[in-house]
């Protein structure tokens, strides 16, 4: 060996000895064939969490100094640690910031493990409450960043981005997910981090078919929230892209589903505070789910409202008057937002109060959308009552919206006139405007999705074949009469046993909305069977529907087009 080579080897041995004395664990980690996990410094069973915490932010070399020098053996001990203490053992200020961020994430994960899921069971492999394939769900869990495969961007905001992705669960299943990532620069702001963790904490306890489900979170940088994917996007984008060409009957169905989801939040004492069409997501063409819970807050058992702190962002155009005046949010303010959301849906997501300031619209109400049925607009007006106590709760709104189902009729013959709604035999029409004061009705052809005016229907004589049902004398069919006339033929009700003349009635299947033809009366469990002896002229098919006058008394009327 040459003298120069000997000096080099000696120099390396000296450097190795000095580093070994300063930091034994860091040197051992670099030895050939060694791994960090196999040469960890000696630790007690109850302080393994401390080593893992430090290792997550590349500070594991300070494990012995933190444990022995600062006498930290429990997470609560960090509350008594000062900045100078960490500097004294060699942890720089940037490293201290990483450590404090890791502590916040660790406290959140520990709360989940103690009060939420046990172990890693987000996909139903054990430890959670339910599996994903059943009627309910597993509890949210901690997800490793390596388990996610991110795809295209779905949206972005000032706090982060939302991307489509896949979650490869520990059991091998692959689930489509939406991943909301917090920007690294924003995670250093205490307010932003608090809002992110608040949204996670709120979502982890929610379990409803019309509320977006939380699968779990990723607590490494950048922080990520993993939720179920709504593949069709937001209701706002869908309605804006298909303006004036969307089934009105489906919008009514969505209104029922949103009310059901909000009723669930109300029973759990949560205030959403940001209900709008942009935060309603399409899980399928016939199902919507409420999402975006960043502003949601829970109420204590002795509180009925939440006072917002100053300098917070809120959706002004959707807010109730009391929210704008004093920052008060409650279930009643959510009801107000629900009414504005309905208005959005039936205007195909026009901006509410566009061009008006808060002072200009004070005391005013949004005008009726042209394509909104009158009954649903009446529901919106009730949601916009000036006094919060006068607004219905969501349980009542479910009944009101269900009762306000738009009337659907069927065309019996072809109709085609300029500037009118074209109809073919058998077309179903969702009625938007109708009544005695209208010489024509307005509705949407469910086949073409066009909206327009068409001839109204006239009450005609109905004479079905006699069978087992008797009508009282004052309910017997009479000669034809216009709509609303007291001389018209009236059916039997199901509230009492009919008597008198026998009429032929057929029993249909279970009275469920999904199985009933739309031209049958949903309020009755009996529907008529038409025969050649019904008295109608050949080629004119009768048309069965309900009117506002007959709904309350559970009656039906028979109409046909001219």
TrEMBL record:
Species this chain originates from: Hippocampus comes (Tiger tail seahorse)
Family indicated by similarity: Belongs to the protein kinase superfamily. Tyr protein kinase family.
Reactions the enzyme catalyzes: L-threonyl-[protein] + ATP = O-phospho-L-threonyl-[protein] + ADP + H(+)
Compositional bias (Basic residues): 499-508
Region (Disordered): 110-136, 473-508
GO cellular component, one term: clathrin-coated vesicle
Name of protein: Tyrosine kinase, non-receptor, 1
Subcellular location: Cytoplasmic vesicle, Clathrin-coated vesicle
């Amino acid at each position: 060996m040459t003298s120069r080579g000997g000096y080099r080897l000696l120099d390396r041995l000296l450097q190795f000895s000095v580093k070994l004395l300063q930091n034994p664990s860091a040197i051992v980690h670099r030895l050939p064939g060694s791994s960090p996990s196999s040469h960890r410094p000696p630790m007690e069973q109850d302080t393994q969490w401390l080593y893992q915490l430090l290792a997550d932010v590349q500070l594991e070399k300070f494990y012995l100094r933190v444990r022995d020098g600062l006498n930290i053996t429990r997470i609560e001990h960090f509350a008594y640690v000062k900045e100078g203490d960490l500097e004294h053992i060699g942890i720089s200020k940037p490293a201290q910031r990483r450590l404090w961020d890791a502590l916040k994430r660790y406290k959140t994960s520990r709360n989940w493990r103690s009060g939420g899921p046990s172990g890693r069971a987000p996909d139903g492999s054990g430890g959670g409450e339910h599996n994903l394939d059943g009627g309910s769900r597993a509890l949210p869990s901690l997800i490793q960043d390596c388990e996610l495969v991110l795809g295209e961007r779905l949206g972005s905001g000032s706090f982060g981005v939302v991307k489509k992705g896949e979650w490869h669960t520990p059991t091998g299943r692959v689930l489509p997910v939406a991943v909301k990532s917090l920007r690294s620069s924003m995670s250093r702001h205490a307010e932003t981090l608090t809002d992110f963790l608040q949204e996670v904490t709120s979502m982890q306890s929610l379990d409803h078919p019309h509320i977006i489900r939380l699968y779990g979170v990723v607590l490494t940088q950048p922080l990520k929230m993993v939720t179920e994917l709504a593949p069709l996007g937001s209701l706002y984008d869908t309605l804006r892209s298909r303006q004036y060409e969307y089934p009105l009957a489906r919008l009514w169905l969505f209104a029922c589903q949103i009310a059901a989801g909000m009723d669930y939040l109300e029973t759990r004492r949560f205030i959403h505070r940001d209900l709008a069409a942009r935060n309603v997501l399409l899980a399928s063409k016939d199902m919507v789910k409420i999402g975006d819970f960043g502003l949601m807050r829970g109420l204590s058992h002795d509180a009925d409202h939440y006072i917002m702190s100053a300098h917070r962002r809120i959706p002004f155009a959707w807010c109730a008057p009391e929210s704008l005046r004093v920052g008060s949010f409650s279930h009643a303010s959510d009801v107000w937002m629900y009414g504005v959301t309905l208005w959005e849906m039936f205007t195909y997501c026009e901006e509410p109060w566009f061009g008006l300031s808060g002072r200009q619209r004070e005391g005013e109400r949004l005008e009726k959308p042209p394509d909104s049925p009158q009954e649903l607009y009446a529901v919106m007006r009730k949601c916009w009552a000036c006094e919060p106590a006068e607004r219905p709760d969501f349980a009542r709104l479910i009944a009101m919206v269900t009762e306000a189902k738009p009337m659907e009729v069927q065309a019996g013959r072809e109709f085609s006139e300029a500037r009118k709604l074209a109809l073919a035999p058998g077309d179903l029409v969702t009625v938007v405007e109708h009544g005695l004061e209208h010489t024509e009705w307005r509705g949407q052809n469910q086949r073409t999705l066009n909206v327009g005016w068409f001839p109204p229907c006239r009450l005609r004589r109905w004479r079905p074949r006699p069978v087992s049902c008797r009508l009282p004398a004052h309910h017997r069919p009479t000669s034809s009469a216009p709509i609303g006339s007291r001389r018209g033929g009236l059916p039997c009700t199901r509230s009492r046993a009919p008597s008198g003349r026998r009429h032929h009635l057929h029993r249909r299947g279970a009275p469920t909305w999904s199985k009933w033809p739309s031209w049958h009366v949903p309020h009755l469990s009996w529907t008529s069977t038409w025969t050649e002896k019904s008295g109608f002229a050949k080629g004119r098919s009768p048309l069965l529907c309900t009117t506002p006058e007959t709904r309350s008394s559970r009656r039906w009327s028979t109409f046909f087009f001219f």
